[in-house]
Batch of 4 targets.
Target 1
Amino acid sequence: MYARRVKDRTLTFSVSGMLWHRSLVMQDLETKTLWSHLLGRGMRGPLKDEKLEVIPSVMTDWESWLPRHPDTTVVTLPRTSARYRREFYRKPSRFVLGITVGGLARAWPFDQLLKQPVVNDQFAGEPVLVLFEPIGSTALAFRRTVDGRELHFEKRGDLLFDRETGSSWDPLTGQAITAGSQAMQLTPLPAVVSYRRAWLTFHPETQFWQAPSSDVPATPDARDVDALKKSSSKP
């Protein structure tokens, strides 16, 4: 999700009908600039190299979303033969949650998040919390710092708890729900759910997180990334 405001101008986007590295290319109606949907960057035209502001968003199922946001409005789109349902994620190894900051990129594969759905991580010098809800295949990222204090989280049942204050949190909203702690809110990060292959194509230097085990390192080394690059080049 992106903000449509660029250089004090609100742009109107549409599908260009073109693909770049098998990924959607957008076009704005005002300047006819072509934009990469995954990079959010102008690729050709008057606004080439301009960047769209990424807005934090959530890809989840309606059953999880509606109770938390009962006044939600819904965009009705034309019917197509393809339906976006939970079965879309039946092969979790194909998907990642990715973040980019200042030329750095990190991704958390869905198959690894199934093994460890609460990840207290670090990225670009900042404490990061990555959460995964298997039922709705929902992956989110938050800052772990609240009021200047770094928190560490763990899952107990359906709720999230931080070790420092003992407060409980809603894992889909990042809102503290323990009495007296409701003012605390985790800041969402502009993470993107993507096909693993597409993410690696656009961010080839990505560091991929892996769930720790006795025989798998917590962070893959350069050989792991090279292997992923080779696999992404196969048809």
Note: The two ends are 28 Å apart (CA to CA).
Target 2
Amino acid sequence: MLPPVAALALCGAAFLVWWMWGDISYFWSPRDPIELGAEGEYRFDRALTNRYAQVHGAPLGRGWYAQEKDGDFVLLPVSDTPLVLRRSTFPDEQPGRDGKRPQPRLNPFSARGRLLSRADAGRYADAVLRIEAWSGQPVKWLLVAEQRPGSDLSVMVSLAFLLAFGALNGWLFVRGLRRSRKG
């Protein structure tokens, strides 16, 4: 009975490592940002998904506010690009007494963070679709500002736990097979 349970647990651990692979590979990606350029000189031919990148630009019109466990953020389309910037909100962008948020800051910016292709946008996919609908610009990239490679240690803690769990269940699987052959 032990080998099938250990094999199932081993498969579960392998699946979770596969599921986290984007975060794991970003943790180890190069620390030097890919320079995507500035207004009038954008170079999206350099863009690689799940890599650290930098862009200079100006937001287009308005943004999409949302919340996550680590705080509020806003998604802003960047003028003349297929890029949406995800950044933390500023103190003056908090909801007013009426519960409504003001328009996000529209001043030019420079941002560094994790660059994701639209296919890898995951939990931001719905917001990207809405931004695309009202902006009229196709969205191909999402830049998650302030997310540096190697900064999220919880990814490595989770990976270490899953590898230890997988190794333990691999050992239990082999031990169970040896015992069943002897008995």
Note: The chain has two domains: 1-28+151-183, 31-149.
Target 3
Amino acid sequence: MQGRGIVYLHFMLQACQVTQQKELKQILELQQLYLRGKKGPGEEAEQGFLTVAHSLTQLHQLHEREPSVIVKDRDTLAGYALVMTRDCKDIIPVLVPMFRHLERLCFGGQPLNNYPYYVMGQVCVAKEYRGRGVFDMLYHKHRELFRDSYRFVITEISTRNLRSVRAHERVGFRTVDIYRDETDEWDVALWDWE
């Protein structure tokens, strides 16, 4: 597979949508390893971190609307990228302020809400699979699956999570806003598929 001049050696890695209950459980297991505060500050600064913990019920509700994308190495979960459509905003209460902030933004001279888009609910790659193209596989599968239904995907990244900010820029995301709330400073980044 090639993308943006990079050749990825996938071996047994496969990008696909979630189809099984066990895959949702694997997402939660992987998520627990990388939540903010689980690792030391040095490792978090170097390797990145996740901000929001989900429940199995919440993942089911997200996947009822749009199944998320995972990369598997046979039966092992190498990474995931959760889809959050705009009608998901009340499923995860801690994210309601993010959705409210997005509703106030403009893109291309128009309110963001004039466009069909979804939010990247969370992206994570297992440490042992980093540097093997999994992050890019996740996002390129998103574009392949969703570009006919959505104009773009948008996400918020803690500006302290430099690894994630750089990885999103590499894929094609561009910052459209930076703001601070009571929890952190956020880089709002958008990947326009047109």
Note: Residues 60 and 194 are 30 Å apart (CA to CA).
Target 4
Amino acid sequence: MTATHSTATRPWRARNRRIIQNSWVVTDIDAAMRHWVATTGVGPFFVVKGITLEDQHYRGRPAAKSIEVTFALAQAGDIQIELVDQHNDARSAYRDLIPAGQSGFHHMAIYSNDYDADLADYTGAGFEVAFSGAFAGKRFCYVDTSRAIGYMIEIIEASDAQAGFFAKIADAAKHWDGSDPIRPAF
């Protein structure tokens, strides 16, 4: 189901409008991190490899094949920068917008203290969940807002562990002297 309204004809506002992250799908995460550091000075990047996402659903059904991805995260002022490199051919929200072999902007993320309410705001407005899952027991999803705004919205469920990890990334950026631009996350 795709949203059938526009903001010009039917005003709508989600409760949670605080964007914390901008994300790009890339074809070579190592090259993309080096490019970001060299051209924007953003860093350091924290690389997350080999994680297992739990309870994966694609377009409302259990995923036929688990996605295999590497993430890299850095902070640029108030916005977190995420790079995503999908390594397999599983159907995913990433491939819905950015075909294999191409790179491009994919989503903005909100950090949610009331995941169910934030999700209900979007689905109640007619937007479909393209992909959902969990990591370490905390939920996330990609809401397909691409027909309305050209990219998706990710909703990330708040947790103490996640908040601590995001704070680690932001703190490293504040005090970064340009050394050690690519680091393991864990």
Note: The first helix runs from residue 29 to 40.
